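User: I'm putting together a small comparison set for a docking exercise, and I want a reference complex before I start. The sequence is below, and the ligand is nickel (II) ion. Could you produce the 3D structure with the ligand included, as structure tokens?
Assistant: Of course. I'll restate your input first, then give the structure tokens for the complex.
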Amino acid sequence: MSIRPILTAPDPRLKAVSQPVAGIDAELRTLIADMIETMYDADGIGLAAIQVGAAKRLLVLDIDQKDGGRNPRVFINPVITAASEETAVMEEGCLSVPEIWDEVERPVRITLEYMDGEGAQQTLEADGLLATCLQHEMDHLDGVLFLDHLSKLKRSMALKKLAKAKKLKAAG
Ligand code: NI
């Protein structure tokens, strides 16, 4: 397993629409293991494959880390089959948009169909943080960042702040 570099906005690769995963092979298992390690290393709760440059419909997440334990979950080719009309606003951040957090409104509950890391087809009803995190990560599969849900003004302010932070980092 190895930690892979995480792409950050405005890297154009983050705008790519990811392709469905055809099947689970050794290469995919390595990618999944690397993504999980990369997510933990970056203190993230979710990571989509495109964030490490792989345009595959694959994401990993773990929203249980706060309790000290680790419960990584793998979602392959996830599809939302139902979403509640009721929405909630949550503050979101993203490993590809470091140091920026902002409020995004999304459905409170979703139903999801996906393949797990063992290749089994699953259906999941999610709400709360899990639903938000899944929707955020699934956006990545279609080239959408949480910034794209913000107003134009807020988005351009966030990108400016990000560019400035990158410059400071480059300057050492
Ligand atoms: Ni993200």
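Helices lie at 26-41, 128-141, 152-170. The domain at 12-166 is CATH 3.90.45.10 (Peptide Deformylase).
User: Thanks, that's exactly what I needed.
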